[in-house]
Design goal:
It contains 6 helices and 10 strands, in the order αββββββββαααααββ. The chain is α+β, with helices and mostly antiparallel strands. It binds zinc ion (ZN).
């Protein structure tokens, strides 16, 4: 699982851990540590003196509304970890909090793909992925018909379109492969060719894999904390991702690996219906 970015279930797992710790706390001081000035840590110091109203999530971003008119936005990148235990190295940002211990939050990010910044409340123009992010997959008000409409005019392969986060938020490489396998849809089918029934089946599958993975605290999250890379429990339930050459759990055909949207993609040539 190395080299796999945290996806929605992993970020939701982090959010749930942070919520009881951070909600209602005032940030006494926010500062960059060993990170050069730049857009990834923009306006971080502005969080100083503001109270954390809530710990939210949009797609793979943590979004913490502050009471002074800003949002603190965090993206874990490849290797970002939020911890109250002072890491030995690669600390990029630090929040000093009021109230009882633990009252210092460290953002550690060895590979530097993460972000930890503030933006004016709700203004995500400096974060294009967040700015253009599609609906939350687990929001019950997101209807299958709206999902079908979001796919309708695209000739991109369905998997590539999902990875772009616009038809629906938070589906990355692992869960795209799993959901397409469950819905029996070939990853290279042009998105606009999905029928309404197929789009509904795909949305159901996306919801099922994400909800189950959140229950099991994700697939890869534990890799980020332990040297030995003990994976999250969902890894045992993966039916497609990482199973190249293994027999399909449904039809026993050997799974194949191809490249779609620049990413390695596992699918079943036996039961995932191909492009016309
Ligand atoms: Zn199959």
């Amino acid at each position: 699982m190395s080299g796999t970015m945290p996806e929605l279930p992993e970020v939701e797992t982090v959010r749930r851990e942070l919520e009881p710790w951070l909600t209602g706390r005032t940030i006494v001081r926010a500062r960059r540590a060993s990170a050069p000035p730049g857009p990834k840590y923009a306006r971080l110091e502005r969080a100083s003196g503001q109270r954390i109203v809530a710990v939210g999530r949009r797609g793979k971003f943590l979004v913490l509304p502050l009471d002074g008119g800003d949002d603190l936005v965090v993206h874990l990148g490849m290797t970002g970890v939020i911890t109250s235990v002072r890491p030995a190295s690669h600390v990029r940002a630090v929040l000093e909090l009021d109230g009882e211990a633990p009252s210092v939050l460290y953002f550690q990010d060895p590979r530097r793909f993460g972000r930890f910044l503030t933006v004016p409340s709700g203004d995500y123009r400096s974060l294009p992925t967040l700015h253009h992010l599609g609906p939350e997959p687990l929001d019950p008000s997101f209807r299958p018909r709206a999902f079908h409409e979001a796919l309708a005019h695209s000739r991109a392969p369905i998997k590539a379109l999902l990875l772009g986060q616009r038809p629906v938020a938070g589906v990355g490489n692992i869960y795209a492969d799993e959901a397409l396998w469950r819905a029996r849809i070939h990853p290279r089918v042009p998105a606009g060719e999905l029928t309404r029934a197929q789009a509904a089946a795909l949305l159901r599958a996306i919801r099922a894999v994400l909800a189950r993975s959140i229950e099991l605290q994700g697939t890869t999250f534990r890799d980020y904390r332990t040297v030995n890379g003990q994976p999250g429990a969902f890894v045992a339930e993966l039916a497609a991702y990482g199973h190249e050459g293994d027999p399909c759990r449904r039809c026993r055909a050997p799974l194949r690996k191809i490249v779609v949207g620049g990413r390695g993609t596992c699918f079943c040539p036996g039961c995932q219906k191909g492009p016309r």
